[in-house]
Amino acid sequence: MATGWYYAAFGAKKLGPFSPTQLQDLAAAGTILPIDTVWQEGNEKGTLASRVRHLFARAASNAAPVPVAAPPVVVAESKPMLVPEQAAAPKAPEKKPAKKGRAFAQKGADIMSQDGAYARYRKKCMKCGHKDAACHMVAIANKTFKTNYFCPKCRKSCEVSIQCQM
Ligand SMILES: [Zn+2]
């Protein structure tokens, strides 16, 4: 059984009937204030709205029912911070700084392997393709590494050029 409720703002006309849910909605919307008077149907003696149990419970839980346009969130760009390595990773300090250098054989060499810091290469003859048996290493720096290879077959020296980039 639905019970009709009425309310009147202070000094204003009595309005109603409303269902308990509607009354709560009015309270939540701020239409009914705690200082207003409400009446339950059949009870001519008005009650202060603030004294009606649960009437403002929803008003409290729906404190901000209107979605507020959120201001654009400015995400601070993460800048590389100069943090001592031990502070960043105290338990597992890296043995070697992570280098991302690359080596490319331009001529007179074959890159065998590289780890970003060093490249292993074998010299080879540009003319006959004869490869040197020995492996050499070059530290990768931001420059082109040049050396010579004396081919035992051609009996000539040819140029070795390895382009390195950091
Ligand atoms: Zn040769």
CATH superfamily of the largest domain: GYF domain
What is the rounded Rg?
42 Å
Strand content range:
35-45%
CATH architecture call of the largest domain: 2-Layer Sandwich
Number of domains: 2
* N-end to C-end Cα span: 82 Å
Unreliable residue runs: 63-68
Which structural class fits the helix and strand makeup? mainly beta
Kindly state the number of beta strands. 10
Largest sheet: 4 strands, antiparallel
Compute the number of helices: 3
> What is the overall pLDDT average?
82
CATH class of the largest domain: Alpha Beta
The fold-level CATH name of the largest domain is Dna Ligase, domain 1
Ligands, deduplicated:
zinc ion
Q: What topology, given as strand order, has the largest sheet? A: 2-1-3-4
**What's the overall geometry?**
rod-shaped
Helix content: 10-25%
Order of helices and strands: EEHEEHHEEEEEE
Question: What report would you give on this structure?
Answer:
It is a single chain. A hairpin with a 4-residue loop joins strand 9 and strand 10. The chain contains 3 helices and 10 strands; from the N terminus they run E-E-H-E-E-H-H-E-E-E-E-E-E. The protein starts with a strand and ends with a strand. It has about 170 residues and is mainly beta. About 5% of the residues have low confidence. The strands form 3 sheets. The protein has a 4-stranded antiparallel β-sheet. A 3-stranded antiparallel β-sheet has the order 5-10-9, with no helix packed on it. Strands 6-7-8 form a 3-stranded antiparallel β-sheet, with no helix packed on it. It folds into 2 domains: about 70 residues, 2-Layer Sandwich (Dna Ligase, domain 1); about 60 residues, no CATH class. Helices cover about 10% and strands about 35% of the residues. Zinc ion (ZN) binds next to loops.
